[in-house]
């Protein structure tokens, strides 16, 4: 459940496969895109822990993708490593000024890139643990340190199980979680198979956070489970 997910954006297929293979071998979950516009659409529906972004892309280039990511409050701290075939200092400075966390010039050592990925993610985790983790989705703010949930600035009283359900859904935004997985993660093995328990708690949770047809937070995936939009 806690495997870190990385999005690689590059229009060179062999680069995508090289990075994907090595990161998956290092224990990461990897998503790929060969187009800047598609990558931005993917970020709207899928939670990732880092973006490895090529500067030279067809259509929307890496610079514009980086700008749009940093303009979105939800992604203002999302780690970004920029890749480029260019080695000029001006490109490196521009990428860093736009908010990239690191910059790697092609051709690169895959071992060095993997090491940089791990170092940046470790630094991100250290920052989160020192600040206290806060999860945000639209008007919902879940503060793990205070064990508090607010919707549109108003505190919402949740039971321990409802809080745990909301937490796991927000941490896996865009990913479908089966009822059995939710049972295992929130209730433990004693409840295995009693999927109706999940449905009842999701119904109560939806009511408390104001999840309706106007503001839809949680999607029901028929016959499988639930997904945070």
UniProtKB/TrEMBL annotation:
<feature type="domain" description="Response regulatory">
    <location>
        <begin position="5"/>
        <end position="121"/>
    </location>
</feature>
<dbReference type="GO" id="GO:0006355">
    <property type="term" value="P:regulation of DNA-templated transcription"/>
</dbReference>
<comment type="function">
    <text>May play the central regulatory role in sporulation. It may be an element of the effector pathway responsible for the activation of sporulation genes in response to nutritional stress. Spo0A may act in concert with spo0H (a sigma factor) to control the expression of some genes that are critical to the sporulation process.</text>
</comment>
<dbReference type="GO" id="GO:0000156">
    <property type="term" value="F:phosphorelay response regulator activity"/>
</dbReference>
<feature type="DNA-binding region" description="OmpR/PhoB-type">
    <location>
        <begin position="132"/>
        <end position="229"/>
    </location>
</feature>
<keyword id="KW-0597">Phosphoprotein</keyword>
<dbReference type="InterPro" id="IPR011006">
    <property type="entry name" value="CheY-like_superfamily"/>
</dbReference>
<dbReference type="GO" id="GO:0005829">
    <property type="term" value="C:cytosol"/>
</dbReference>
<dbReference type="InterPro" id="IPR001867">
    <property type="entry name" value="OmpR/PhoB-type_DNA-bd"/>
</dbReference>
<keyword id="KW-0804">Transcription</keyword>
<dbReference type="Pfam" id="PF00486">
    <property type="entry name" value="Trans_reg_C"/>
</dbReference>
<keyword id="KW-0902">Two-component regulatory system</keyword>
<protein>
    <recommendedName>
        <fullName>Stage 0 sporulation protein A homolog</fullName>
    </recommendedName>
</protein>
<dbReference type="InterPro" id="IPR001789">
    <property type="entry name" value="Sig_transdc_resp-reg_receiver"/>
</dbReference>
<keyword id="KW-0805">Transcription regulation</keyword>
<dbReference type="GO" id="GO:0000976">
    <property type="term" value="F:transcription cis-regulatory region binding"/>
</dbReference>
<dbReference type="InterPro" id="IPR036388">
    <property type="entry name" value="WH-like_DNA-bd_sf"/>
</dbReference>
<dbReference type="Pfam" id="PF00072">
    <property type="entry name" value="Response_reg"/>
</dbReference>
<dbReference type="InterPro" id="IPR016032">
    <property type="entry name" value="Sig_transdc_resp-reg_C-effctor"/>
</dbReference>
<feature type="domain" description="OmpR/PhoB-type">
    <location>
        <begin position="132"/>
        <end position="229"/>
    </location>
</feature>
<feature type="modified residue" description="4-aspartylphosphate">
    <location>
        <position position="54"/>
    </location>
</feature>
<keyword id="KW-0238">DNA-binding</keyword>
<dbReference type="GO" id="GO:0032993">
    <property type="term" value="C:protein-DNA complex"/>
</dbReference>
<dbReference type="InterPro" id="IPR039420">
    <property type="entry name" value="WalR-like"/>
</dbReference>
